[in-house]
Give the backbone structure.
Amino acid sequence: MDLEAIQSALREQKLDGWLFYDHHHRDPIAYRILGLSVSLHVTRRWYYLIPADGEPRKLVHRIEAGRLDTLPGTKSAYSSWQELEDQLKTMLAPYQRLAMQYSARNAIMYVSMVDAGTVELLRDFGKTIVSSADLVSHFEAVLSEERIASHYEAQRVIDEVLIEGFREIGRRVRPANGGSAATTEYALVQWLSEALRRGGLVWENAPDVAVNQNTSDSHYAATEEATKPIYEGDFVLIDIWGRVNRPDSIFYDITWTGVVGREPSDRERLVFETVRNARDAAITLVQAAFSSARPVAGWEADDAARAVIREAGFGEWFTHRTGHNIATDIHGSGAHLDNLETHDERQLLPFTCFSVEPGIYLPEFGVRSEIDMITSADQAVVTGMIQRELLRI
C-alpha cells in the first residue's frame, strides 16, 4: 500500500478519507489496494480509514484483533454491535466526505462492494458517501513498465497462435489426401489451449471458437458435449486471451473472424466492415483525446463506436459494451468503454490497458473485431494485430 499516494489522491479529489470495509472477503478490491493477504481468516467485520491527512485508523473485532496489523495506524476493537456502531461513529467523527467501494444506483457495479445497510448506517451518522471508482481506477488499473511489458509478451504469443489456429482449421478441413474432413469447435479450443500453454501463458476460461449461428452468441463456449463441426464454407470466430504465467502479468485479448474455403458474401462483408469502422472510430477518438491532452471517459468511446453501427442500421444487434479494462484480471477494475450496460464516466487514464471490441450479432452469424490499446501520458496505441478484412481460411 502506498499511503502517501492514496492521501495525495484523496486531497486532489477533495475527499476527507477512504473507508475500507470487509466481512468474509466481500471486497477483493480492498485486499489488493491495501496489500492484505487473501488467505486471512475473516469472519467478523473490519474497517480501515485512510484520511486525506493524518494517521489511518483501524476498527476490528476483538477475536480477530490482529487482522489489520500489517497496516499502519491506530487500532480500536469492538465485540457487540452496539460497541461497533459507537466506535465507528467516533472514528469517523472528524470526517464528512468518505469514499467507499460504492456506486450510486449500482451504476458501476464493478466497484459496488459495500452493502446497502452499511451505507445507510453511515448516512445516519451524517456522512456523505461517494464512489471510490476513480480512486480504484488509479490504484488498480494504472500499469507499471513491467506490467506493460508482460502484456506485449502475451501479445506476441497470442498473435502467432491465432494465425496458426486459423491455418490449423484449413489443414483439418482440407486434408492432404484431397478428401473432405471436419473438425469441431471444441477440438480447436483444445488445440489453441495447448498452443497457449506451450507459449507459457495462462488464462481465465478457454478460448472461444464458434461457427455459423454460434458466432451470434457473444459469450459462446463450446464443450466436449455441445460442439459443432467446422466444414468448408463455414463462418468462424476465434476469441483468444491469456497472460504470461507469473504474478502481476497483464492479459492480452483479441477476436478475429473468417470464412473457410470461400469468398465472403456481400452481407458478411457489410457487417464486418461496419464493425471494423466502429472499432476504428473508437480508436481514433481515444487517440485524438490523448494526443491533445483532453480527458476522455469510457462512455465517449462507446458512443463513437455505437454511432457507426447505429447509422448502418444494425444498432439493435450490438448488444454489449464496446470494451473493458484489462489488467491482471481480464476484466479489470478500470474504466470500461461503456454507455450501454453502464454509463461509465470514469476517465481512461494514462498507462492503462483496455479492449475495443464492437460487434454485430445477427441470427445467422455474428462479427466481433477486438483489439487492445495501451495509453501513455500523450498517446494511445493498439498493441497487436489489427484485422482489416475477413480472413480467408
Remarks:
- The two ends are 49 Å apart (CA to CA).
